[in-house]
Amino acid sequence: MKMLNIGLTVDSVSSDKYVYELARWAKDQPDINISHLIVHPRHDGSSFGKLKDLLLRRQLHRLPAKILFKIIVSVEKLLLRLSDPHKDHYRSCDLAKVIDRVVEIAPITSKSGYVCRFSDEDVEKVKALDLDLLIRCGSGILSGGILRASRLGIVSFHHGDNQVNRGGPPGFWESYYRAPKTGFIIQRLTEGLDAGEVLVRGYFATRVYYSLNQAHVYKKSLAHLKNLLKQVASTGTLPPAERHPAPYSHMLFRTPNVAQCIVYGCKLLTRIFIKVVASLLRLRERWGISVLSAKWDEAVLWRSTETPLPRGRFWADPFLCTRNGRTFCFVEDFVYKTGKGHITALEINGTRIVERGIALSEPFHLSFPYLFEYQGELYMCPEAQGSRQIRIYRCTEFPLQWKLEKIIMEGVSAVDTMLFPRGGKWWMLTSIDESGVGDYSSELFLFSSSTPLSTHWIPHRHNPIRIDSYGGRNAGLIMEGDKIFRLAQCQGFDRYGHSLVVHEIKEVSDERYVEEPAAEIGPNFRKGLLGTHHLSTDGKTVVIDHASYSFVL
């Protein structure tokens, strides 16, 4: 096994927690070695000091805005203490404790203060390290010979790049404008201010305030950089770049001015106030279901009938199943008192729904009771993320008796799994969070096997096949003859399960996965709805779930 030797370009040996985590992670990898820190300090040399003074005089008028922005960040640091995965987002770490070989080079900075080039002597110094790859972890736009100082060039992160809001601070403007998602790219740097070959692009649902949103996108995207490095270590090359990069037609965003800081501060206080008051009043988003007799693609959803919910519970994730002329709907049945869900069977008679009992319960939370048939038997693959397993249950007596048949995947944090046959194989679509933050709404993974009960599932070569909070989490499957439609969730700003998108799966093979959008379903068919994130049909009946505010005692 050939070792992938990597150098990190940094401003100093003091780094944020994410670079430090990357360095610590690499220590545990058998084929990845982050061997050097390439430090290019932004110090006060004679020419740079004059440039810095000039830039400082030009930016004195922005001093009040910078002070206000620091106050905002200080407040948000306090809020981050309530978020376990991100409470140390602003922590500084000493990289020298992990990487002891340090090479210092001097940047030649452009008049703008943003572009950094290096002397031929410094470039040769880096080349002499015989590195396979450099990762840009510092500031400045790197240009010139340094881009060719390692075998594979320089890979760089860009956070907040979502084709609408580009620029800094990363994650701020998405929260400011309530954008539904915040993007990132990992690219190989090439010459030019806006040039680069995009290797990975993704989008995550925007969080309620700036620092939380930034911490979230940093942590989530770091997992994709780790996967990229493992892939490069395995193949010896970088993956192909995007074939059809899209032009950026919006303005470049910068640090907010005084007025924008004040507006954002007011927005932040309002959002916090609303959440605190809602919590005190026990006003919560509560999911329910509605039923309609129609084909799914002809359904007029405002004609659907909403089902009354039992006290202290909600129903979501409906899956329909018809047996012996009777139609049943299996749902996630969440109990507020216990904070845990189980699977309940409901019987549908026209637009009337009758609760028949608990179909499946475990010590851990269950939801998303996906149903499929195999060799004449009915199976269920519910979400069982709390067990860190993907589990298959077989129906022994319909609809309330189920037996654990097989654990098909162990040690995986996966949700909303669906299995279906196509082309002589069984395919599994599931959402996996490899970052550990508990967000399963963006990354969609594909696996294949010869049977749905196999314990050996082959990951698709392009996993994850989708990194997007708009369509990255399953919401149901419709099979109509040769056509397969994958329903998927679309997340909103600070809102889980805002709407649905229906994709038709055009091709699924070991080499490719292709789907095309066929329809969108929003929460506009009834007043007071906040979101909808699941739909099921048997060809004659449609059941859809939806969220609204409700006082829960």
Question: Would you write up a description of this structure?
Answer:
The strands form 9 sheets. The protein has a 7-stranded mixed sheet with strand order 5-3-1-8-10-12-13, with helices on one face. By secondary structure, it is α+β, with helices and mostly antiparallel strands. It contains 7 helices and 36 strands. The termini are far apart. α3 packs parallel to α7. Helices cover 19% and strands 44% of the residues. The chain is globular, with a radius of gyration of 26 Å. About 1% of the residues have low confidence.
If you compute it from the alpha carbons, what radius of gyration comes out, rounded to the nearest whole angstrom? 26 Å
| Residue windows where pLDDT falls under 50 for at least 5 positions | 44-48
Relative strand content = 35-45%
The dominant shape is globular
Pairing-aware structural class of the strands and helices? alpha+beta
Number-wise, the strands total 36
Strands side by side in the biggest sheet: 5-3-1-8-10-12-13
Number of helices: 7
Averaged pLDDT:
93
How can the largest sheet be summarized? 7 strands, mixed
N- to C-terminal distance: 59 Å
Helix content: 10-25%
